[in-house]
Structure formats: C-alpha cells, structure tokens
Design brief:
The chain is mainly α. It has one domain. The protein has seven helices and no strands. Helix 3 runs parallel beside helix 7. The longest helix has 29 residues. The protein is globular and about 50 Å long.
C-alpha cells in the first residue's frame, strides 16, 4: 500500500479514537469507533493475504453494530445537539491524549529499531496510540458506553501490535470472541443502567 494511504489511515484512526475520548455524543462516538476499525483494516499487515485483516474489520463492525442497535432500540442515550465548544474536562482529555500520541510518535523509531523490529512504523504508531487512548478513556469516564468503547479501543490497539509480530489462529479467534463478548456485555450494562435510571 502507498505511504500516503497508510499515513492517512493512522492519522484518521488516532483522530477517531481522540474523538471518542473527548466527545460524549453517542452517534458520533459509534461512527468514530467504526472509522477506527476501518483504519485498522487498512494498516493491518497483509503478508498472508486479506483474510486476517478482514476478520478484524468484520468483528469490529459487528461489535459496533451490537452497541448501536442496543442504544437505538432502548433509547438509552438521549439525542443532544452537537456543540463545537469544549468543556474543561473535554479539553483536559484532548490535551492528555495529544501528549500521549506525541510521545508515541517520538518514541516509535527507537521502539521499532530496538523492541519491535518485525513491525513497521505505521502499525506501531496506530497500535500504541490506540492502546494509550483506550486506557486514558477507561480511567476518565464511568458511563457504560464510553467504558466499552475504551475497552474496544485498547484491545484493538493491542491486537494490531500483536498481529504485526506473529500470527496465531487460536489467538485471533480468542480476540474475536473477546471483542464480541465486550460488546455484548456493554449492551447489557447500557440496558441495566437505563433500568436503574427509570423509576
């Protein structure tokens, strides 16, 4: 693939993860999660063909669809008008994520040379960026939807990095099952939160 496409996929994937961290608009967040999985598909190594990358995007989009359909059918998250103004918390999360991604970009050449020589720079930046942004989201939000998105973001970053180092059919199946179980658990907790809120 061309360097331009890979660079665009890395930037778009990190921006989608950053959008999920900063904003709390459910439709926007689910769309950003789907874009994130498409970017992972583009960057994922295809040395053994497209099948492994295709599994990633199918499982990722199925997880996204599970969350979307749950929210849509239960009305668990209310529709709110989109605002471009950032609150203090959103600004803090954005600056924290930008700082972490900058560290990843600066450290990636050394990590590629010394720690992960089998990988490439695009995979390394996207995978570590997604993992760190996912961890930051897990630590800064408590709502079920955003915790699940944080878990899926972290796991997708880890899967991308692991997939660039070696391939194991058993682990790929395990990752797919874990992704779907996280989405199903997220759907359960979204419904449960709604039931506790309604008298």
């Amino acid at each position: 693939m061309t360097k331009f496409l890979l660079t665009a996929a890395v930037i778009t994937g990190l921006l989608a993860a950053l959008a999920n961290l900063v904003r709390r608009k459910w439709l926007f967040n689910i769309l950003a999660l789907a874009i994130q999985y498409v970017c992972i598909f583009i960057v994922f190594p295809k040395t053994d063909g497209f099948m492994h990358a295709l599994i990633k995007i199918i499982v990722g989009l199925m997880s996204t669809l599970i969350i979307y359909l749950t929210i849509q059918n239960t009305g668990a998250v209310k529709r709110e008008p989109f605002e471009f103004k950032l609150s203090a918390g959103e600004l803090f999360r954005m600056l924290s994520a930008v700082f972490l991604v900058t560290l990843v970009v600066l450290a990636s050449p050394w990590l590629l040379k010394e720690v992960f020589p089998q990988s490439n720079i695009y995979i390394l930046i996207l995978s570590l960026g997604l993992a760190l942004i996912g961890l930051l989201q897990l630590g800064s939000k408590t709502e079920s939807l955003y915790v699940i998105i944080g878990l899926l973001t972290f796991l997708s970053g880890f899967e991308l990095l692991y997939g660039s180092l070696e391939f194991s059919a058993l682990l790929e199946a395990l990752f797919a099952i874990v992704n779907l179980l996280i989405a199903i658990a997220g759907a359960f907790f979204i419904v449960k939160d709604l039931e506790t809120e309604t008298p």
